[in-house]
């Protein structure tokens, strides 16, 4: 590392984070939980200044013509700030992963062997216009004994700066180093590049955002990356589906909050129920404000259906748009999913247990729902508390990443004068 690099604001921030991580790791649960409670209280007490900062970001976003779905992700109201604070309090009540014995045994030679969970150290989070991630990441990292470096998008800079100031003040008031939570300085690409290449200072990077961001971090980082994935999620309506249930699950999966990664982007319908299901689904989706991009069988329902092509099958809309196709059978649905899915969440609606089991066995995604909305793939809904992201890779962590996924392990070996013969 050159002297110029050492003097970089990003590197200096990472060095302070390493010092803070060393102080944070041995702290007992009571101290870390006390800091989290202080954060939750401070968020509620200082919500007006947080929303005022957020309003500046919203104004800039609207002036730049930002899509409504992105503006929704960016928006913080006092109610949303209170919900974020409630998420932090829920994290307090979760089991502490640090020091948990993963496995242990006494070896034949009398040595006692334990594998225990330990913090990563310094965790970097690179994310797009979702300021709630700022607090979620800080809370989960603190609870798991990690310092965190937060690099949000420039579109949320004012919101993130306000949130980090509140969090740092609360952390310091609880007796922990404020530098356990830091905003990475700079709004340009250079600061992102420095963070991605701070190997030896940053222990792991977690990108949260669209496909382009994730690809950039995975391909350009020298720091180990836990890859969170985009959400091209599917709902398959089987020939044995309860059609009332299928309509309700489909509309919830798509329209409950379309701007998030666990929203459905494609519906596949078994041809045996298409004649009855398609008109009902189209009517319910239209009522919910959803535009259907359909194949020929969907297009026959009327001019409101936009003709679909391969780009639609590959698209994570994050909007009130839905790709739709009729398939001849379950295996065809699975084949479509395996080709186009991002590996996030898929759902089957069926009363046929054998069909459900086959779907679960064949679909290779982080979560498979049986007669349930895709919207349930979420750390909070799974009982993990606020999540750091949803990993779609297969190494280290897969699915919603809660506290245990923010730890590594080390072996503790205890002897009584043992030497190796």
Strand content: 15-25%
Work out the helicity level.
40-55%
Shape: globular
Mean pLDDT: 93
Quickly count the helices.
Answer: 16
Strands of the widest sheet, in order across it, are 10-9-11-8-7-12-13
* Structural class by secondary-structure content: alpha/beta
Unreliable segments of 5+ consecutive residues: none
Taking Cα atoms only, what radius of gyration do you get, to the nearest Å? Answer: 24 Å
Largest sheet: 7 strands, parallel
Please give the number of β-strands. Answer: 16
Distance between the termini: 42 Å
Word description of this protein:
The chain has 421 residues and is α/β, with parallel strands linked by helices. The chain is built from 16 helices and 16 strands. The strands form 4 sheets. A 7-stranded parallel β-sheet has the order 10-9-11-8-7-12-13, with helices on both faces. Strands 5-4-3-6 form a 4-stranded parallel β-sheet, sandwiched between helices. The protein has a 3-stranded antiparallel β-sheet with strand order 1-2-16, with no helix packed on it. Helix 8 links the parallel strand 4 and strand 5. The protein is globular.
